[in-house]
């Protein structure tokens, strides 16, 4: 008898009572993200084909104007979230400012704000490497019934009520948390259904994989250099393995399953690192902590950082608890 895997829809219904706020709304939100994920997955998977078939001009196989995939993904997520009437505002890597969403009766009754990186690592599309969507969800802090404000988006990461990512890889997965652990769902493209394939995902306490762009080594702080050298020394279970896909969601996903640490340090060419706090680091840090891992800027918890602007960047170190702690030791020696 084939074990029936639970669908995402069944999982949401079963767990909506566990969500500390009104259940139905978050379910609607996750369902909106589920729908957008399927649409973007379809576009991402045919990207190469469309480029080939659409190469004759700037229109694609359907005769539509070919859009850059990250612009397409941005539009799909924003449109899908707008239609659900529970989001009062959206911030996106693709949008300079946040977007105010008026409910149909225009009285701003919607309670949630969503921040998204619609297609992280989109430059990898051209070389057929996995990419991802990252999302972060907060309850608004300004009064319901008034237009959303910037402060609704500039909340500390620890105030998130949910966060997750979609990884468009060899299979497409939706991985998310609402504060009760992390669960992974794999899309069956034939049915358009996500199935619970990775329940209760957790970072192993230790790992033997480190992910960093070593091409920037010369620009890193001495403590980070020391940690990379520590990973490379022949001692005990070291040297570790270096694995860097150039796609945060993919590196994070592999490290959560196998154990590992992802690093995007600051350097003298990127004084605050490259990754964005609000829609890359905070959601991934929320997931990491929900999965028994750690996420820091090298000195303190990512989720405790007080945001100051929508697109600010922070150094980002995230993964297996013991590996992040060892990194902190190396950095502290040079503090
Ligand atoms: P670099 C993709 O652009 C991204 O935001 C992450 O997904 C990825 O880990 C990182 O940047 C890659 O940046 O500078 O190493 O190419």
Describe this structure in words.
With 335 residues, the chain is of the alpha+beta class. It is 31% helix and 21% strand. The protein has helices spanning 8-15, 23-45, 47-53, 69-83, 150-153, 222-232, 248-258, 277-290, 321-332; strands at 87-92, 99-100, 112-120, 131-139, 162-168, 172-177, 182-188, 193-201, 209-211, 241-242, 261-264, 294-296, 316-319. It has an 8-stranded mixed beta sheet with strand order 2-1-3-4-5-6-7-8, with helices on both faces. The chain has a 5-stranded mixed beta sheet with strand order 10-9-11-13-12, sandwiched between helices. A hairpin with a 4-residue loop joins strand 6 (172-177) and strand 7. Bound molecules: 6-O-phosphono-alpha-D-fructofuranose (P6P). Residues 120-121, 213, 246-248, 274-275 line the site of 6-O-phosphono-alpha-D-fructofuranose.
List keywords for this structure.
335 residues; alpha+beta; Fructose-1,6-Bisphosphatase, Chain A, domain 1; D-Maltodextrin-Binding Protein, domain 2; 2 domains; 8-stranded mixed beta sheet; 5-stranded mixed beta sheet; 9 helices; globular; binds 6-O-phosphono-alpha-D-fructofuranose
Helix-strand layout with pairing:
Elements: H1 8-15, H2 23-45, H3 47-53, H4 69-83, E1 87-92, E2 99-100, E3 112-120, E4 131-139, H5 150-153, E5 162-168, E6 172-177, E7 182-188, E8 193-201, E9 209-211, H6 222-232, E10 241-242, H7 248-258, E11 261-264, H8 277-290, E12 294-296, E13 316-319, H9 321-332
Parallel strand pairs: 1-3, 9-10, 9-11
Antiparallel strand pairs: 1-2, 3-4, 4-5, 5-6, 6-7, 7-8, 11-13, 12-13
Helix pairs in contact: 2-4, 6-9
The chain binds 6-O-phosphono-alpha-D-fructofuranose.
């Amino acid at each position: 008898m084939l074990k029936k895997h639970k669908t995402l829809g069944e999982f949401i219904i079963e767990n909506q009572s566990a969500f500390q706020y009104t259940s139905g709304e978050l379910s609607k939100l996750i369902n909106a993200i589920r729908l957008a994920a399927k649409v973007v997955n379809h576009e991402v998977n045919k990207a190469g084909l469309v480029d080939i078939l659409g190469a004759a001009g700037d229109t694609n196989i359907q005769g539509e104007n070919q859009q850059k995939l990250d612009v397409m993904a941005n539009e799909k997520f924003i449109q899908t979230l707008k239609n659900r009437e529970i989001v009062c505002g959206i911030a996106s890597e693709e949008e300079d400012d946040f977007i105010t969403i008026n409910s149909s009766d225009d009285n701003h009754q919607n309670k949630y704000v969503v921040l998204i990186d619609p297609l992280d690592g989109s430059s990898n599309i051209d070389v057929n490497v996995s990419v991802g969507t990252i999302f972060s969800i907060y309850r608004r802090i300004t009064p319901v019934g008034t237009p959303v404000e910037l402060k609704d988006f500039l909340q500390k990461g620890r105030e998130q009520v949910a966060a997750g990512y979609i990884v468009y890889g060899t299979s497409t997965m939706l991985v998310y948390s609402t504060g009760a652990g992390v669960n992974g769902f794999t899309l069956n493209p034939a049915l358009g259904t996500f199935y619970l394939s990775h329940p209760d995902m957790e970072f192993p306490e230790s790992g033997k994989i480190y992910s960093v762009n070593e091409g920037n080594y010369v620009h890193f702080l001495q403590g980070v250099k020391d940690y990379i050298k520590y990973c490379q020394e022949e001692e005990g279970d070291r040297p570790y393995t270096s694995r860097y896909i150039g796609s945060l969601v993919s590196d994070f996903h592999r490290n959560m399953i196998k154990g590992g640490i992802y690093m995007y340090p600051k350097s003298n060419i990127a004084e605050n690192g490259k990754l964005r706090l609000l829609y890359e680091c905070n959601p991934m840090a929320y997931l990491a902590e929900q999965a028994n891992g750690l996420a820091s800027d090298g000195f303190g918890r990512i989720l405790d950082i007080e945001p100051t602007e929508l697109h600010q960047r922070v150094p980002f170190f995230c993964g297996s608890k013991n590996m992040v702690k060892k990194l902190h030791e190396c950095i502290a020696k040079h503090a």
